[in-house]
Amino acid sequence: MVGRLREMRCEVSFLKNADGSASFSQGATCVWASCSGPGDVHASKANEEAMTLDVSYRTNCGDNKFHEVR
């Protein structure tokens, strides 16, 4: 039996309310990524030398809640 590569698709800027977004899928597996911000930060809390990255994921089946990656 010869292995077959599942169809791959990629799309950029597909989320309207994000500053940047991308979608990658192969077969039934799909990954969405988006970037939003920076939001309004008070000058006393601004840090020009660091940034925060929040990562969460949601499964396609099961509880369907967002889970934070730590």
Automatic annotation (TrEMBL):
Q: Which UniProt keywords apply?
A: Exosome, Nucleus, rRNA processing
Q: Name one GO biological process term.
A: rRNA processing
Localization, per the record, is:
Nucleus
Give the Exoribonuclease phosphorolytic domain ranges.
5-59
The Gene Ontology CC terms held by the record are: cytoplasmic exosome (RNase complex); nuclear exosome (RNase complex); nucleolus
Please indicate if the UniProt record lists rRNA processing as a keyword: yes
Molecular functions per Gene Ontology? RNA binding
Sorted alphabetically, which Gene3D superfamilies does this protein's record hold? GHMP Kinase, N-terminal domain
Give a Pfam family name: RNase_PH
**Principal place of residence:** nucleus
Calcium is among the record's keywords? no
- Give the protein family: Belongs to the RNase PH family.
- What is the protein's given name? RNase_PH domain-containing protein
Q: Which species does the entry assign this protein to?
A: Caenorhabditis japonica
